[in-house]
Specification:
Elements: H1 2-10, H2 16-23, H3 40-65, H4 69-77, H5 82-110, H6 113-119, H7 131-140, H8 146-176
């Protein structure tokens, strides 16, 4: 549903973004957000990030609330500046959340076939084609090549698993330290 709303926001003729920019006289002619090869992937990424923002905001808020106030008080007594407190306490304590957010974001983004399909269908010039969409097009699109579609999906799976294992090991290694 959100992809349809964003498709309307990005629309060349009646989209909200183009209407606002034209009325504010920031641009003379409309921008083809989803048709321009240089802007299409950025536009899709913005939608995916927007869709995941509430979850990650809650995760970081929970992480911030779990940091004991005594750590900041002790750092202040020891003479740590605000920047040092932020870097060595806040960022250090949020590191597992950063890693988890990156891992979940990579998994969810890699499987965001519905967003890419609705916004660009892999175009322009295959600039927004992701592995799941390529697999779908090969297996169920005009070519009807089920074997090739399955091959793409099976090729992508180990890449995602390697990424997840790498991130998980890094997270566990930092926990031990």
């Amino acid at each position: 549903m959100s992809a349809l709303n964003w498709r309307w926001l990005y629309d060349d003729a009646s989209g909200l973004f183009n209407n606002i920019l034209v009325r504010l006289e920031l641009i003379d002619e409309t921008i083809s957000w989803l048709s321009d090869p240089h802007l299409a992937m950025l536009s899709v990424i913005i939608v995916v990030v927007w869709q995941g923002t509430p979850f990650f905001t809650m995760a970081f808020l929970a992480g911030l609330q779990s940091i004991p106030k005594e750590l900041y008080e002790a750092a202040e007594i020891d003479g740590a500046s605000v920047l040092q407190q932020f870097w060595y306490i806040t960022i250090a304590r949020l590191r597992p959340i950063f890693i988890t957010a990156v891992m979940l974001s990579a998994i969810w983004t890699s499987s965001a076939i519905n967003i890419v399909y609705i916004l660009t269908n892999g175009g322009p010039a295959d600039r927004t084609t992701i592995f799941p969409l390529l697999s779908y097009h090969l297996a169920l699109g005009g070519a009807q090549r089920l074997g090739m579609g399955a091959t793409v999906a099976l090729f992508f799976f180990p890449i995602l698993v390697i990424f997840i294992v790498f991130v998980t090991r890094r997270m566990l290694r930092e926990k031990e330290e």
